[in-house]
From TrEMBL:
Reaction catalyzed: shikimate + ATP = 3-phosphoshikimate + ADP + H(+)
Cofactor stoichiometry and binding remark: Binds 1 Mg(2+) ion per subunit.
GO biological process, one term: aromatic amino acid family biosynthetic process
Protein name: Shikimate kinase
Molecular function as annotated in GO: ATP binding; magnesium ion binding; shikimate kinase activity
Subunit structure of this chain's protein: Monomer.
Biological source species: Halarcobacter anaerophilus
Pfam families reported for this sequence: SKI
GO cellular component annotations of the record: cytosol
Alphabetical keyword list: Amino-acid biosynthesis, Aromatic amino acid biosynthesis, ATP-binding, Cytoplasm, Kinase, Magnesium, Metal-binding, Nucleotide-binding, Transferase
CDD domains: SK
InterPro entries, per database record: P-loop_NTPase, Shikimate/glucono_kinase, Shikimate_kinase/TSH1
Family of this protein: Belongs to the shikimate kinase family.
Pathway where it operates: Metabolic intermediate biosynthesis; chorismate biosynthesis; chorismate from D-erythrose 4-phosphate and phosphoenolpyruvate: step 5/7
Amino acid sequence: MSKKNNIILIGFMGVGKGTIARALVKKTDFFAVDTDDLIESAENKKIKKIFKEEGESYFRDLEKKCALWLEKNVDNTVISTGGGFFRQENIHKIGKIIYLESSFEGILNRIHSAPNAKNKLKKRPLLSDLEEAKKLYNQRIKDYEEVADIKIDVENRTIDEIVKDILGSI
Ligand code: S3P
């Protein structure tokens, strides 16, 4: 159990971790950071470019470094994470883990109904092949549940409802 007062949002790509983090900031005195944003600023490179030029395992090493840094340095913060960040060994030491749960179809609907749908797809290298992405989703769902302290159903629910659920459960 973490001694820290962070909220960590985990879940599959496109489920709305960043959106929910920003909504939580509005309702609490927490601030927010996003692991992908931290990595992009540390490398001065977009995730897509890091994957392309350095490969996925280089990116996973950066996630690990980021997780160790968060454990040491960050408190009272909502941390939205990349979809694979939940595998970090120290994740329970960083804070309370909230899994945002949706079906794969629900996630695709959410992405496609966004005004910037094209960009949302383009910036995520692991969503470029939807068949492969679905496989990855199926491989991960049980693991997300296992890692999570709290599971929140986000499908067909408003941001306000989701935020209320999260604040009521922590
Ligand atoms: C990944 C999810 C992405 C990003 C990277 C890898 C994953 O973050 O970290 O492309 O392994 O699921 P989002 O979940 O914000 O799309």
